Amino acid sequence: MATTKTKAVTKSKTTTKTTTAKTTVSKKQCDLSVLHVSPEFSPLAKIGGLADVAGTLPLAELDLGVDARAMLPAWPGVKEKVEKLGKLEKKPLGTLYIALNARVCEITVLKATLKGLTIYLLDNEEFFGNKAVYPTENNARTVEPFVLMSYAAFELPKVTGFEPQILHVHDWPSAFIPCALQYHKHYSKLRSKYKVVFTIHNMAHQGLFAPDCIPEWGFDWSSFAWGQDETLEYWGLVNLMKGALNYSDAITTVSPSYRQEIATSQYGYGLEGVINKNAHKVFGILNGIDYSVWGSSTDKTIPASFNTRSFKGKEKCKQAICEQFGFSNPSLPLAVYIGRLVDQKGVGLLAEALKQTDGVMNTLIIGSGNDYYQGLISDYVDNSSYAQKFFGFNEELAHVAYAGADMLLMPSLFEPCGLSQIIACSYATLPLVRATGGLRDTVIDAQDENGNGFVFYNVCANDLADTIRRATETYKNKAYWKKLMLNAKNADFSWKVSATKYTDLYKSLLN
Q1: Higher pLDDT, residue 28 or 401
Q2: 187-193 contacts, C-beta under 8 A, 24 or more apart
Q3: What are residue 255's phi and psi, to 5 degrees?
Q4: Which residues contact 107 (CB under 8 A, 6 or more apart)?
Q5: CA-to-CA distance for 198 and 178, rounded, in angstroms?
Q6: To which H or E segment does residue 324 belong?
Q7: What's the half-sphere exposure (Cβ side, CA atoms, 13 Å) at 291?
Q8: With CB atoms counted within 10 Å of each terminal CB, which end of the chain scores lower, N or C?
Q9: Which helix (H) or strand (E) element contains residue 502?
Q10: Region 73-83: what's the mean pLDDT?
């Protein structure tokens, strides 16, 4: 893979490869209404990074004067979290009646407010009350919650009075929206009412179903014309991602580099041809983070706060982690891995590279995943005096680990955007990453004067091990390491710039 250098965004500089944009929207200028539709929404229902985007992008758009609102199912625990963190109106706004598979489904709409954002909760015990968000297999029955969630966007104005100009839909569970506007026997009549923006959070998950779902969803059979690039047909299956790519007015990816990667056979997962055909409407916009949640000077969950004037608080956070997990030599650099233990995240590379570099640093692995990769990690940890593991996820532990670590290990095989490396920078923790997707756009190697981390390129455990050794040697140069920490800490990955890009995109569609 070719080496590509990118310039970091600092809080005093706003000219970079990944976030070059003029702020053209203000509260007085903006006259836009947007409904975000997502199965996940942080902090109410979170499985992965999708929740973080869906939960923070609308808030950033509100700050720009956009009438942004969100809609999601009332999965188990969602209403309780709203009551704890925000406000839930006791009286429902009304009931939606949605036809699905020869029956009429009743969905109660509840109104919630969280940090000033209006959220519509779809309440139905049968479809949302005992679900774990994503099904273990895709079929006509298991996908019904997502169908109802999507069709509710068309019915919502009847009980809320809110008529969005833009439907911003996230990943394949919401892809029924652009597909229905093209092929549904009733909702296709609403096509002229909306502009649809479809955000790809992970091209690997496309929403594949047997064709017998077509009539149950209310789609016309013309949607499944064999061998046609424009239809939903994909090797004899229905592909919702393909339909969303074809029928949305704009497509966004969660980083500029990922937009380039999914146009290739290596990362397109069979849809690279559809991406290239629709290239004129595909845009790469980098995700941001909420610094009020992930910020070393404001985080109330860490042992001590800190900023660029002094890193003494960070030293206390590192001490807390070392004491909790029994690292006997805290003078060594502390590296953490925080994430899922799955193939995508390069856990196989990580396990092998850690064996090769055992003893050069203390390592803490936080996460869970399939048994195979947990086994690889366990084998290494059990035979090392320099490594510990925490299988599972604990929000407070993650905060302390980000704050106390010297390095974050993130050797992903592919990464649409990645938030962990951005979060790490906010705590002056240096990411060590493979140059792919959003990792390429956000991490600059320490050899550059603007460096904020360490980068390797090949999917190779030896290369990862070499980069670990280079990072630990650099750690010995305290003055230079502090410079890298300042570069990381000063990088600005807030939502403001990216939300402005989305707002400009909305305006261009309406114009």
Answers
A1: 401
A2: 187/151, 187/154, 187/218, 188/220, 190/154
A3: -165, 155
A4: 95, 96, 97, 98, 122, 123, 124, 127, 148, 152, 155
A5: 8
A6: helix 312-325
A7: 15
A8: C
A9: helix 495-510
A10: 96
Measured CA to CA, the distance from residue 481 to residue 496 in angstroms comes to 29
Between the CA atoms of 121, 127, 129 and 131, what dihedral angle is there, to the nearest 10 degrees? -110
C-alpha torsion 154→159→163→164, nearest 10: -60
Q: Give the pLDDT confidence score for residue 10 in this predicted structure.
A: 41
Count the alpha carbons within 13 Å of 501 in the hemisphere toward its beta carbon.
Answer: 22
Q: Between the CA of residue 484 and those of 79, 116, 296, 488, what are the distances in Å?
A: 43, 36, 16, 6
Helix 176-183, helix 144-155: angle, nearest 10: 70
Q: In terms of Cα–Cα distance, which of 178, 229, 239 is closest to 206?
A: 239
Q: DSSP character for 255?
A: S
pTM: 0.89
Helix axes 461-475, 478-490, angle to 10 degrees: 110
Q: What is the DSSP string of 137-151?
A: S-STTTTHHHHHHHH
Residues 199-217 pLDDT 10s: 999 999 999 999 999 999 9
* Residue located via tokens 């002229």: 192
Instruction: Give the Cα-Cα-Cα angle 11, 18, 430 (nearest 5 degrees).
Output: 60
What contacts 170, CB < 8 A, 6 or more positions away? Answer: 36, 37, 38, 39, 40, 50, 53, 54, 199, 201
Phi-psi category of residue 172: left, alpha or beta, with phi > 0 → left and psi -120 to 50 → alpha: alpha
Distances (CA, A) of 490 to 339, 458, 511: 24, 28, 36
pLDDT band at residue 31 under the 50/70/90 scheme: confident
Is the separation of the CB atoms in 49 and 201 below 8 Å? yes
pLDDT in tens, 349-374: 999 999 999 999 999 999 999 999 99
- Residue 410 in this model has a pLDDT that exceeds 80: yes
CB 474 within 8 A of CB 451: no
Residue 220 has pLDDT above 60, yes or no: yes
Neighbours of 372 (CB within 10 A): 12
Two structure tokens written together for 502? 């989305």
Residue type, position 308, single letter: T
Please tell me the distance from the alpha carbon of residue 95 to that of residue 106, in angstroms, as a whole number: 6
* Site of tokens 């309406």: 510
How many C-beta neighbours within 10 Å does residue 31 have? 11
Q: Where are the alpha helices (DSSP H) in 405-494?
A: 420-426, 437-442, 461-475, 478-490
Do 152 and 71 form a contact (C-beta atoms < 8 A)?
yes
Task: Determine the average pLDDT of the residues in 281-307.
Answer: 94
pLDDT tens figures, 55-67:
999 999 999 999 9
Q: What one-letter code names the amino acid at 98?
A: I
